[in-house]
Model the fold of this input.
Amino acid sequence: MKAGNKVIRLKFSKHGLMKYIGHLDVMRSFQKVVRRSGIDVAYSDGYSPHQIMSFAQPLGVGLESNGEYFDLEVQSADTTEKMMAALNEQCPEGIRILDAVQLPEKSPNAMASVNQASYTVRFREGHMPSFDIKHAAEDFLNAETVTVTKKTKKSTREIDIRSLVFDLVVLNNEDELNAYNEKNGIKTDCGSSEDRDTTVDFGAAAFPVIKMRVMASSGDNVKPGLLMQALSDRNNGGEIGDTDLMIIREDLFDESGKSLIEAGERF
Amino acid sequence: MKKTALSDEILLKIEKPERYIGNEINAVFKDKEKVDIRYAMCFPDVYEIGMSHLGIQILYDMFNKREDVWCERVYSPWVDLDRVMREKNIPLFALESQDNIKDFDFLGITIQYEMCYTNILQVLDLAQIPLTATDRTEEHPIVIGGGPCTYNPEPIAEFFDMFYIGEGEISYDPLFDLYKEMKKNGASRKDFLKAAASIPGIYVPSLYDAEYHEDGTLASFKPNVPEAPVRVRKQIVMDMNDVSYPDKPIVPFIRVTQDRVVLEVMRGCIRGCRFCQAGEIYRPVRERSLEFLKKKAQSMLDSTGQDEITLSSLSTSDYSQLGELVHWLIDNYRDKYVNISLPSLRIDAFSLDIMSRVQDIKKSSLTFASEAGSQRLRNVINKGITEEDIMKGSAEAFKGGWNKVKLYFMLGLPTETDEDVKAIAHLSDAVAMNYFDTIPKENRKGVRVQVTSSASFFIPKPFTAFQWSPMNSADEFLRKAHLCSDEFRQMLNHKSLRFMYHENELSELEGVLARGDRKLSKVIRSAYENGAIYDSWGEMFEKKRWTDAFAENGIDIDFYTLRERPEDELFPWDFIDAGVTKKFLLDEWHQAQAGVVTPNCRQKCSGCGAAVFGGGVCFESRK
Done:
C-alpha cells in the first residue's frame, strides 16, 4: 500500500431488483459507481491497473442483504458523510451505502475478517413445511451434535452443523418480532422505504420469521438452506427446494462476534 | 420497488435473470400516463448481443428526448425463458416498464443479419401479436423494421407493417407526429399505414404487389395505392455534427459483447470492396468533427463510468483526423485508466505506432482482412490490399513485438479457382516465414509466431456488384474448405499455422434469405413452426427444420443461390433507391470479371450515384 493511502470499509444493502445481480456483476457495477462518483480511488500497478477493491463475501443470487461489505483503497478521502453521499448518488436503485469507516493500518481485509453471518429467513407462500418450525429449532439447539452432509462443487463431507450455529430463533407473530428487534437493538426503519422493499410480497408467508447467526468463514460456511434442511430432516419434513426460502442477510461479523463495520472509525 | 413481469420464482430458475429486469444505470423511465406514444425497440437476439448495438442506443436516446414518446427495450428471451413463457402463457414485456409489448403503439425491430428472421417471429409470437401484418387489428402495435437487412426486406415483408429504409435519425420525427395526429383523430390502422407511406424512407409492404414470371423471377413490383411511392429512397444523415448522439448510454449489469463506450467516428466506407454490402448502402462517407467526438467521449465516459472506449466505423483508418483524436484521448484519459480500443485498423507504420501506445502487444493480435489468397482474386473483389502490404505490415509488427497474426479470407468468391483456394495457405505460410526472416533467432525468446487464418463462405448480397453472381452450394463450400485445409498441412511452417472455417449450411441458408423474395415468408414461417430459433447460434441451428420448410412450401433453394442472374433481371429490392445506381453496380460486376480494380472515393470519384445526397466525401476536395 502506498504511503498516504487509506483503506475505507463500506457497508451496503442490496434489495429489490438488485438481488438478481450476481456477485461478479455487483463488483463490476461498483467499479463504475466509484468512477462516476469521482472518489480519489487508488489503482494497482501493472499493465492493466484496476481499482484496489476487495469484497467480504459473495451473496448468492436471489438473496437480499442489509449487511454487505467491501474495502476500498483511496489516495484521499473527505468525510464519511461526503463519501457516502457521492457513492449513493451513483448507486443503482436497490443498492445503498449504509456506512463507511476508515480501517486502522494493517487491518485484515473484509474477506479475511468474515467469520459469522446473520440471516432472516421466511418460507415462500405455499411452501411452508409440515413440521412445527419453532419446536424444531428448540430441539436443534438442545442437541449435542447434528451431523449433515455438505455438498460443494468439489466435495461431499459430513459436518456437525450444531457447532456452527450460534443463534436460532423462530418468531411466530408481529409481537414476537418487535420484542426480538427491541431486545437486539435492531432499528426497522434504516434506509428509504423504497430500498427496504423486497421483491416479494410476503403476504401470508410473513411469519414465521426465522433469525439465525451461523458460521461464515471460508472453511465452514453454513448457508441458511443447509440449516433449514437439517431441521426438516430431523422432523421428516422432506426436501426444501432452492426457491422455497426467502433469505435476507442481515450482517457479517468477525471471529469475536463484532460487526465488520466496527473494525474502523468514521472519518 | 419496480415491478417485474416475471415472478420471483421464475427469475430465480432461469439463466441470467439480469437479462429481463431492466433497471440499469441510464435506462429511461417515464410516466406512461404522460406520453402519447409507447415504442418498444427490439433487437431480436439475446440481451448481451442486443445491448451491444450502437444503432439502438442512438435511437433510444433520440426518441426519449421527445416528451411525448417513451422508448423502451426488448430482446429475445433465451430458450429457457422462451419455454416458460409459452408454458405459462406470459406475454413478452418491455424491460423498463415491464408492460406487455402488445399494448404498445410501435414495436420497432432492428434487423442486422438474415439468420435472426426466425427470432423476429419468436418475438411477435411471444408478444402475442399476429405474425402476419394483415392479420393485425387496431389493438396491435405497428410493427416496423429497420437496419441493413431492410435493403432487401422482401423475405420478411409479410411480417411487418412497415420498414424504415436508412438511418433512423431522419424520418422518425415526422412518423411520430403523423401517428399522434391520426391517433387523436381516431384514424384506422389502414389509413395510418397509407399516410405513412408518403414519409420519405417508409416502405409499407402491403401497399405493393409483386408478380412473377413462370420461372419464378420477378415480373413486376408496383404500389397499389397512389400514396405509396414507386421507389423508396434511403434516408441518411448529412450533417454528422448536428444530429442526436447519446450522452448517457445505458450501462448493463452483466457483461455484454460490446461492454464499453462506443464513439462512432464516421459512417460509410470509401473502399468499395465488391462483396461488401455495408460499403455500398452507407455511402457516401460522412465524418464527424473532432470537436463533436471529444464532447461525446467526455460525456459518455463521465455518465457511465466505463473504463474503455472504442472508435467505431467500417474502416477507422480512413477517418481523416484519427491521429488527433487518438492522441487527445491518450492525453486526457490515460491517467484516468481508460482503455482505448481500435478495431478495424489497416496495418501500417502509423497504426502500429498508435496501437503500441494503447494496447498490450503481448496479448493483442494483428488482423489483416486479405479476403482472398491470390492477387488476381483480390483484384476481382476490389480489395485494395496487396501481398506487399501484408508482408511490410507484418514485418513492422513483428519488429514491434507482436507475434500473433489473424488473416481473414472468404471461400467461394466469383471466378475462384482451386489455385486461388490453395493460395490462402500459401499466403498464410508466407506471413509465418516473414516472421522467421524478420526476427533473428536470438531475439525470438522461444516464442513461436502464430498465424490464424479463418475463412467464411462468400454470400452475394443485394446492392453489391456481386448481386448477379451465383453462390457455391453447401457441398462445394465444404470441398473448398477441405482442399484449403489439406494445403495448410503441406506448408513448411504448418506448425505455426491454424486454419478455421465457417458453417457451410448456415451460409447457404443466409444466401437464400439475402437475395430472397416475398415467396420466402412462408418458408421462414414454416421453419419457425418446425422449431427454428436462434439460427445464428451455430449450436441451435438444425438444418432439417429448414429443409422441411422449403419442401413444405415447394421452394427450391438452388433458384436463389446457384443461378447466375441475367443482367436485365428485376430484383425484389430494385424498388429501393440506395443512392448507388444499378448501372454502377453492373459496371462493377463487369470490372470484377475483367479483374480490374476501381479506385477508392478519395482517389477518384467513380460516379456510383451517392452524390445525389449532396454531401460527404463526394464533395470533399480530392487529394
